Q: What sequence folds into this?
């Protein structure tokens, strides 16, 4: 019989496990350095839960298992801050920082030096985080309460929610902390976490958050801590409130002390000297801002020496010893003048907001993307109304939504966007606009003739796996289209040596080579030609499968949807895409022109619908074979097989040609059936 676990052992185990789990929390959430796998973390967590269940008398609120508690019954209680939570004065230009520094020098009474200037004040420079301020109260090193800033004097008690944020220690590390310590900092959500949250929100049909700050605020003000626990919040501490005992003499040192007690401190803080130091730091942050993992809306400069902070004190509700140098606003209000549509390189049609010009983040914005029709409806956009425009980092400006006051604007000038209708015809080429089943996006069906898609279509047509026109790369396509020499893929075959030789950076020899390459490309295969047309969803293998099935372009042009769906590798989506493309008269005209201009292929006998001898089998093809891989793939697909790109346990056969890659090794590792080209041919021939 085994001895029951004795109490001291269980108590020690619980303490050790709790400390280990909290250290893992810090490593994961603060240092981005997971020390163990998620599974190992979960195992330790369950071990602790089991021990606590067996010894309920040893369970404390400080345990990592107790971060998520019950819903407070009466909403959030009001909390009066022992010391007010101050705000910051703002500076929007360099001059204002100069004035701030001068004011401080006067107040502190710094003597002018021999050069007539003053001794430089040392500042602690910090990023201004874009989240919400929080005050954490620790007594005897234990987190006892947490409150939002509220109006600065009274906030809300959000302790249950704050406890779910894993970077926040429930118990301070070490033993040299003051008995009473209020820590202040900013709760925020990193950009990636925000994006992930919105994806989940959308999948669950929940409302999307406009920006990480709203997401952080919304997440912290949840009545159910379970909800907050699932929101990826984090925190950096930048200050303190009421405390017992003495803290260090310099702001920077106090933050270091807080860090040593396990509180998260922003790694970008830096001590700088005088206005020049502030200016350099601001510039560095402007540059780093787009690459930071979280949003910041400026930088904060704080007098580093605490005796000077005390000396200058505060005015109204902001300290005199600190200032926020704000970045140019990333959001602005303006009027939505109209909603047009724009055609992308691949034919995707996106609605665009035409805006009254407005400065956002330092540039004038006149257009913003609206992504799709659903978004216009979801945001209840109204032409003529005032909208919030946002430009974050170097991304394309976006319309966040209607300004809160816009519905009270003169309603007579507003049109409901129910008026906005996706046009039926492409604004660039008049081809029919189509929408795929279940997709939010619309696209222009005039792939071969649409000016917006021209460059992409020509470049794809000429590419190696399509018509293989050597030398006709992306740059040259751009140049030829811009020079007005190519309006469609058919024009490639109308190019003359003289026209090319007149172009910039085009030597006589290169022009001759290109003309020869174009002539060569006329001899092709039907499969390549179909692929080259750039029909959506029609890849190389599908092109070959279609060619094999019909044997001629005429057969394909005459086929109805049901016939198309019969082809191996062609499902309803591909069939519809083919039909839409071929039904568009502009496309057919270009196809006719291409055939008249001399493109031809060896006649092939249309294959009968093959017996599905490989139905349900999965193949991976790796290495070089005596015939092109798309051809092999098409043969396999015709017989009902699936051809995938990566080897897994589900793979039935791995066909290995010359110089195979790591896929062959992986197949051997998994003990899969590996076959050579001859064996593969045997399988195909049945
Ligand atoms: S110090 C004693 N430092 O900005 C001054 N605030 O506009 C108290 N904020 O309510 C604030 N990053 O929510 C300070 N590094 C930082 C900050 C910061 C963001 C927020 C904070 C404050 C608001 C004032």
A:
């Amino acid at each position: 019989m085994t001895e029951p676990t004795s109490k001291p052992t269980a108590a020690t185990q619980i303490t050790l496990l709790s400390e280990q789990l909290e250290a893992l929390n810090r490593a994961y959430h603060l240092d981005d350095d997971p020390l163990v796998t998620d599974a190992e973390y979960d195992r330790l967590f369950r071990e602790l839960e089991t021990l606590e269940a067996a010894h309920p008398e040893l369970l404390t609120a400080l345990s990592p298992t107790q971060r998520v508690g019950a819903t407070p019954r009466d909403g959030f209680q009001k909390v009066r801050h022992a010391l007010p939570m101050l705000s910051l004065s703002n500076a929007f230009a360099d001059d204002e920082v100069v004035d701030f520094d001068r004011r401080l020098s006067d107040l502190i009474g710094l003597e002018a030096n021999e050069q007539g200037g003053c001794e430089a004040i040392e500042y602690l420079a910090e990023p201004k985080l874009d989240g919400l301020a929080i005050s954490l109260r620790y007594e005897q090193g234990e987190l006892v309460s947490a409150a939002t800033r509220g109006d600065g004097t009274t906030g809300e008690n959000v302790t249950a929610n704050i406890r779910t944020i894993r970077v926040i220690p429930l118990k301070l590390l070490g033993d040299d902390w003051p008995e009473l310590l209020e820590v202040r900092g900013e709760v925020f959500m990193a950009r990636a976490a925000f994006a992930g949250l919105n994806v989940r929100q959308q999948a669950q049909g929940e409302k999307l958050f406009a920006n990480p700050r709203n997401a952080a605020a919304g997440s912290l003000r949840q009545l159910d801590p379970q909800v907050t626990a699932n929101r990826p919040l984090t925190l950096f501490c930048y200050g303190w409130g009421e405390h017992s005992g003495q803290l260090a003499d310099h702001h920077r040192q106090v933050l270091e002390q807080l860090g040593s007690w396990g509180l998260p401190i922003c790694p970008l803080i830096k001590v700088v000297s005088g206005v020049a130091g502030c200016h350099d730091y601001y510039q560095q942050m402007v540059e780093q801002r787009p690459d930071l993992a979280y949003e910041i809306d400026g930088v904060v400069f704080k007098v580093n020496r605490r005796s000077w902070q005390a000396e200058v004190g505060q005015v109204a509700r902001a300290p005199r010893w600190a200032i926020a140098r704000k970045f140019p606003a990333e959001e602005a209000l303006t009027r939505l003048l109209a909603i047009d549509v724009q055609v992308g390189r691949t034919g995707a049609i996106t609605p665009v907001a035409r805006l009254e010009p407005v400065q956002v983040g330092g540039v004038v914005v006149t257009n913003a993307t609206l992504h799709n029709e659903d978004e216009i409806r979801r945001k209840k956009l109204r032409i003529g109304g005032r909208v919030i425009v946002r430009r974050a980092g170097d991304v394309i400006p976006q319309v966040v939504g209607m300004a809160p006051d816009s519905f009270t604007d003169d309603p007579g000038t507003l049109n409901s966007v129910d008026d906005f209708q996706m046009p039926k015809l492409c604004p660039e080429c008049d081809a029919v606009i189509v929408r795929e089943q279940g997709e939010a996006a619309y696209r222009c069906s005039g792939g071969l003739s649409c000016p917006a898609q021209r460059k992409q279509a020509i470049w794809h047509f000429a590419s190696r796996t399509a018509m293989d026109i050597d030398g006709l790369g992306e740059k040259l396509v751009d140049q030829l289209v811009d020079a007005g020499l190519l309006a469609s893929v058919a024009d490639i075959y109308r190019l003359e040596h003289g026209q090319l030789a007149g172009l910039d950076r085009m030597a006589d020899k290169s022009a001759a080579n290109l003309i020869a390459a174009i002539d060569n490309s006329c001899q092709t295969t039907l499969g390549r030609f179909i692929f080259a047309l750039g029909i959506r969803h029609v890849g190389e293998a599908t092109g070959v499968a279609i060619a094999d099935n019909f044997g001629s372009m005429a057969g394909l042009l005459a086929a109805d949807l049901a016939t198309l769906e019969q082809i191996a590798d062609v499902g309803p989506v591909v069939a519809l895409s083919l039909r839409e493309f071929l039904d568009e008269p502009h496309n057919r005209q270009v196809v006719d022109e291409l055939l008249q201009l001399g493109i031809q292929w060896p006649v092939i006998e249309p294959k009968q619908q093959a017996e599905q001898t490989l139905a349900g089998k999965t193949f991976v093809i790796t290495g070089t074979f005596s015939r092109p891989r798309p051809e092999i793939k098409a043969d396999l697909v015709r017989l009902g097989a699936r051809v995938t790109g990566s080897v897994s346990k589900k793979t039935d056969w791995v066909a290995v040609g010359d110089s195979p890659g790591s896929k062959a090794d992986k197949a051997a590792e998994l003990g899969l059936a590996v076959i050579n080209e001859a064996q593969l041919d045997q399988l195909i021939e049945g």
In short: The CA atoms of residues 524 and 601 lie 5 Å apart.
